Amino acid sequence: MVALAKLAEYRDNDTGRHLDRVTRFCLVLAEALRERDAYRKLIDAQFLYNLERSVPLHDIGKVAIPDEILLFPGRLNDEQMAVMRTHTDTGANTIQALIARAPGVSFLEMATDIARYHHERYDGKGYPTGLKAEAIPLAARITAVADVYDALTTRRVYKEAFSHAKAVEIIREGSGTQFDPAVVEAFLNRQATFAKLAETMADEQPPRTHVGAEPVLAAD
To answer: Among 25, 76, 156, 204, who pairs with 146 as Cys (CB 3.0-4.6 Å)?
Structure first.
């Protein structure tokens, strides 16, 4: 399963240890949420077990995105973005095909939810289906924050890395609109841990930003 997930990562040589970092970030957020009464029963040992194995598959659908879009050094236009957004359904459908051949593998159900819904927004303006608030699976709401933090704080072909402080500011501002406020609160409570992990798990050779690339947040 890890090898399968790495296929998407290897196609985009800018992502480095993206999957490893996002997985760790998600576990930090889940552990923080687990301290709250509202989440203590939801986030049990099985949830954490499944989360650790599911998150690396969140972008597996990118294997189907053409290079000229996946590696485009700038802001995507509407047509390109529409193609990029198909990676959520492609990834979820791929994992569902695995479920059909490997029934009883519990983490694959969560992996399907994460792959399909980690770009949904808390206000219902995300994709691919426009789910809103708690209708978005909890694991996907957790992954959304972790994924955006990593996208913000790492260099990509289309942008320079933002500072940890800037990433915190952006995520805080997205509370209740892009992100689940409870997950944002958990992030803010553990932001020092995020900063440390981002430093210790940084890519060994950061990619060079393409000349003329706009400093924008990608459709990761």
So the answer is: 25
CA distance 112 to 94: 8
Q: Are 120 and 144 in contact (CB under 8 A)?
A: yes
CA distance readout (Å), 153 to 2, 6, 80, 218: 24, 21, 24, 12
Q: Which amino acid is at 40?
A: R
Which among 14, 21, 15 has a CA at the least distance from the CA of 164?
21
Ranges of each domain in the chain: 2-200
Residue range 2-200, CATH number: 1.10.3210.10
Helix and strand element counts for the chain (H, E): 12, 0
Global pTM reads: 0.89
Ordered alpha helix ranges (H), 13-134? 18-34, 37-40, 45-54, 67-70, 78-84, 86-101, 107-117
User: What is the pLDDT confidence band of residue 31, given thresholds at 50, 70 and 90?
Assistant: very high
Nearest CA to 140 out of 164, 170, 110, 169 is that of 110
CA dihedral of residues 90, 93, 121, 219 (deg, nearest 10)? -20
Q: Is the pLDDT of residue 204 over 90?
A: no
Asked whether the predicted pLDDT for residue 15 surpasses 70, the reply is: no
**Side-chain half-sphere exposure of 105, counting CA atoms within 13 A:** 15
